[in-house]
Amino acid sequence: MTISDESTFLGIDLSTQQLKAVVINNELQTLHEAQVQFDCDLPEFRTHGGVVIHPQDSRVVTAPPLMWVKALDMLLDRLRVAGVDFSQIASLSGAAQQHGSVYWSKGALSKLESLNPDRFLHEQLATCFSVTQSPVWMDSSTTEQCRRLEDAVGGPLALAELTGSRAYERFTGPQIAKLFDTRPSTYHSTERISLVSSCVASLFLGKYAALDYSDASGMNLLNIHTKEWSQECLKSCAPDLAEKLGEPVPSYSVLGPVSDYFVERYGFSPDCRVVAFTGDNPGSLIGMCMAEGDLVVSLGTSDTLILDLKKPQTLGEGHILCSPLTPDTFMGLLCFKNGSIPRNRINEKCTEGSWQIFSELLDSTPRGNFGNFGLYYDVQEIVPFVVGDYRFNKAGVHVSRFASNEVEVRALIEGQFVARRAHAEDLGFIAGNNTRILATGGASKNHCILQVLADVFNVPVYTQEVSNSAALGSAYQAKFALIRESTTFKDMTAHLPSPTLVCSPYKDAQAVYNPMVARYRAAIKNILQNK
Ligand code: XUL
């Protein structure tokens, strides 16, 4: 499709709790947004926070793929009501929560290829999933499969060198291995395995969409250097896996035209192109328009850090993913499950839920918190693999509580950011003169929290008026994929407003927080040894 001044681009983001869409114009300005909240808009699927935590084993966390399908029907209806002219959309792309897997049963492809535009998608695809509860990124039930995969390739570091990560419980390879171990006949009755991202792309395409390199890097299966499946890894997880996954493609690939279903039901142009979907973190990297040296810190349900890396480095913890924008570069990713979960709990406990008082308490304590230090993990953390509350006084002695609410509040925020910094440094992050932190996510609205972030990293913190970086990034990718032969992403986005400086570090920040990072490393070593 040729792009005109009237062309628009659609970006989708299927996150843990909701499905969102943004439509932008040719100048990359937002025209329309819509969203569907899984818990309240689709209560029949009985999710909490978009997921089901299994009562008999809380490490098992899933979501029904049919709920995501039904959400797409609703989202498109909401866009229509909002006045979106679907015929102007030149291309669309999307992002989704990473690592989750969708299992299509035998015969699903022919259903996808012959969708009837008079009926909802969820009615027609109701029997298309061989696994009705898809494992999602919050699942941590595959430790056994992780060890087996690491052993198969020569240990955790060898796996990290090959696939960008040592084995992680939520990664798709160990998840597929668990399905094969525990339900082999279900595995065999599966004709295709999608990531959550490529599942949504498949709906738009009306056939199975290829996985993109960036999201495929979150599976422990892709050789991130050659961009091919690692045969050793596939073999260790399950038989005939290559054919169930299909060939991965660059994230900016145009996969084909939108399916007739969308043309006839919503009035999409038959020329509208579907661009490969990717993970929400790669999508955010695009949406935040990261410049060299930037660190994106997203403060949401989970806290995630994104680094732009020219070269991958072998690592103990954290992830290296193929870049969604360029063929030969990489991105570093760290994901901490205990982001807003402990922030909300400590806020409830210390202020009965008032963020205003929380901020006042944080501001009333000095940097360094009189030597008190705390780490709070409500749920099993990914990095480090610990759970529980740990409080230490000035003398480094383990204490069960702090003397005041203000000390507790500061201990939480300092402890979180000191941990984020230690692991970012392990991943290759070095604060230089031009380094900026681009903060996003719910807690980035709180300047007192961002001041602690600036001080701990000793780096200025900026924010952007981007409420949903992954959906916006997908809309940018939709356009970029059509014009990348003739321009760079940097040029395409050069006219967009620059991020706003919100906090600069205080002069004494390094002196206060460098020792605290060392203290964190020692505390974690100790906690892990005494587990
Ligand atoms: C990244 C991760 C999460 C999900 C959540 O590794 O597990 O950030 O992508 O959406």
How is this structure best described in words?
The chain contains 21 helices and 24 strands. With 531 residues, the protein is α+β, with helices and mostly antiparallel strands. The chain folds into 2 domains: 8-282, Nucleotidyltransferase, domain 5, CATH 3.30.420.40; 289-463 and 499-531, ATPase, nucleotide binding domain (Nucleotidyltransferase, domain 5), CATH 3.30.420. Strand 22 (437-440), helix 18 and strand 23 (461-463) form a beta-alpha-beta unit. The longest helix is centred in the last third of the chain and has 22 residues, at 405-426. The site of D-xylulose has 15 residues, from helix 14 and strand 18.
Protein topology:
Layout lengths: L7 E7 L3 E8 L4 E8 H4 L10 E2 L7 E3 L1 H17 L7 E8 L4 E5 L2 H6 L7 H4 L9 E2 L7 H11 L2 H8 L8 H11 L1 H5 L1 E6 H10 L7 H4 L5 E2 L4 E2 L1 H7 L3 H5 L8 E4 L2 H7 L6 E3 L2 E2 H8 L7 E5 L3 E7 L9 E4 L7 E7 L3 H12 L3 H9 L9 E5 L10 E5 L5 E2 L5 H22 L10 E4 L6 H11 L3 E3 L5 H15 L5 H5 L6 E4 L5 H21 L2
Parallel strand pairs: 1-6, 6-13, 6-14, 15-22, 22-23
Antiparallel strand pairs: 1-2, 2-3, 4-5, 5-8, 7-9, 10-11, 12-13, 15-16, 16-18, 17-18, 19-20, 20-21, 23-24
Helix pairs in contact: 5-6, 5-7, 5-11, 7-11, 14-19, 15-17, 16-17, 17-18, 17-21
Essential attributes:
alpha+beta; binds D-xylulose; Nucleotidyltransferase, domain 5; seven-stranded mixed beta sheet; 2 domains; 531 residues
Q: For this structure, what is the CATH homologous superfamily of the largest domain?
A: ATPase, nucleotide binding domain
What is the distance, rounded to the nearest whole angstrom, between the alpha carbons of the first and last residues? Answer: 58 Å
Summing up helix and strand content along with how strands pair, one would put the structural category as alpha+beta
Gyration radius, rounded = 23 Å
